[in-house]
Design a protein that fits this description.
- By secondary structure, the protein is of the alpha/beta class.
- The chain has nine helices and eleven strands.
- The radius of gyration is 17 Å and the shape is globular.
- 39% of the residues lie in helices and 18% in strands.
- The protein has a nine-stranded mixed sheet with strand order 4-3-5-2-1-6-10-11-9, with helices on both faces. It has a two-stranded antiparallel ribbon with strand order 7-8.
- It has helices at residues 5-11, 40-55, 72-77, 82-106, 128-136, 154-165, 198-204, 211-219, 234-240, and strands spanning 20-25, 59-64, 111-115, 124-125, 140-144, 169-174, 179-180, 192-193, 195-197, 224-228, 246-249.
Length: 251
């Protein structure tokens, strides 16, 4: 059982729609207006919201992308070997994970970074049973370095880790407020979906998560909720079961 300030948070779980959540954050959301890879004010705002949700008693695990620093596929398109580019991207996710850990712990939220590529000096190696134990003890767990393998995205890592820790849902927090049939920033008449099945996402080629991640979630009937991270309070609304974003489900 958790102790100290973590105990009160974990015991206060009434009213939650989801009790164990895998939160997938986009690395691009951390980019500052002046072009800095990590905007500390933005990061601090995310940390405060995550703390608020954690205080409700929700067990939170997080996977954060590395696109604000380097994306493996983009590096490959510029001439870097694909596997090398993917490993660079994995290291970028670790940088973001450490930054998020620092912001959370400054707010008094105990956090553990677990990495699929072992770096003992700065993070714990990923071990499934240890990860679930951290969650049970009221700690937030941040999974870094994807799956540890090239050719797999952080979306796939999020699906895999969610299944391993027994998460009830994946929250895909992005810059838009759900899934649309076209890019809403380019098409004013783009239509937002309230709900979708996995098959509809795959057949329509919708950009929810990559096809490997969608197939993994479909095979294991793990729902995905896509919503706007930049709107304050949305993570809390999602955990409480309020209707926001787009829900992808088995049907």
């Amino acid at each position: 059982m958790p102790d100290g300030p973590q105990a009160a948070a974990v015991s206060n779980r009434s009213g939650l729609r989801y009790h164990r959540v895998l939160l997938k954050l986009s690395g691009e959301t951390l980019v500052g207006k002046n072009g800095t890879a990590i905007d500390l004010d933005t990061l601090g705002n995310f940390a405060e919201e995550i703390k608020e949700v954690h205080a409700l008693g929700c067990e939170l695990a997080i996977v954060i992308g590395g696109g604000n620093i380097v994306r493996g596929l983009s590096a490959h398109e510029q001439g870097i070997d694909r596997a090398t580019g993917d490993y660079m991207g994995m290291l970028a996710t670790l940088i973001n994970s450490l930054a998020l850990q620092d912001s959370l712990e400054k707010l008094g939220v105990m956090t553990r970074v677990m990495t699929a590529i072992e770096m003992h000096q700065i993070a714990e190696p990923y071990i499934r049973r240890r990860a679930t134990r951290h969650l049970e003890k009221g700690r937030i767990v941040v999974f870094a370095a994807g799956t540890g393998n090239p050719y797999f995205t952080t979306d796939t890592a999020a699906g895999l880790r969610a299944m391993e820790i027994g998460a009830e849902v994946i929250f895909k927090a992005t810059k838009v407020d759900g899934v649309y049939d076209a890019d809403p920033q380019k098409h004013a008449d783009a239509r937002k979906y309230g709900e979708l099945t996995y098959i509809e996402v795959l057949n329509r080629g919708l950009k929810v998560m990559d096809s490997t991640a969608i197939s993994l979630c479909m095979d294991n009937r793990l729902p995905i909720l896509v919503f706007n991270l930049l709107e304050r309070g949305n993570i809390k609304k999602a955990v409480l079961g309020e209707k926001i974003g787009t829900l992808v489900h088995p049907g």
